[in-house]
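Memo to structure team: turn this sequence into structure tokens by end of day. - J.P.
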Amino acid sequence: MSLEPGSRWASPGGDGADGFRLLLVRHAKAVPKDRPVDDFDRELSKRGRKDAPRTGRWLADCGPRPDFVLCSPSRRTRQTWRLAASELDDPPTVVYDERLYNTPPSKLVSVLTERGRGLRAVVLVGHNPGIHELAAGLCGSGPPDLLERVRAGFPTSGVVVIEVPGGWERLSPGSGRVIARRSPAD
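Reply from structure team:
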């Protein structure tokens, strides 16, 4: 089960409670690793350049505007967010943080805790395996079919939306509830 364009999940907090949303986005498809370029500088492939705007349209159609975007500074993540953001009416502020480049989930949580203070909905654009491990580790509840899809993998241009009760300081394994998942195949 994933949200269809035109349907929207409830805004963070819904009734004013302490609801927070984490929107995890994996960069779009990049050129193969066998090219003579440093991994950090790999650009999006033709398919990635097509998929990234579709991710942006899905974000625009299906949810509230995020407050803030944290993005790895690699070339492919920057390109992904730039193309996705072009589909948003009012793109949020984006910060490129070098700590997000190919990093483990524990570091991603540290950056979210530090940078998310006072924000209700944060997008994090990153890389596998860290972003998949973070999604799978945080999602302790939610519709069983969504939980299964989150645990099965995190495709390029994929999005996982997690409700975070209690805020960024309370991020811990199993503390989140998956409320949506999107992949280019959807």
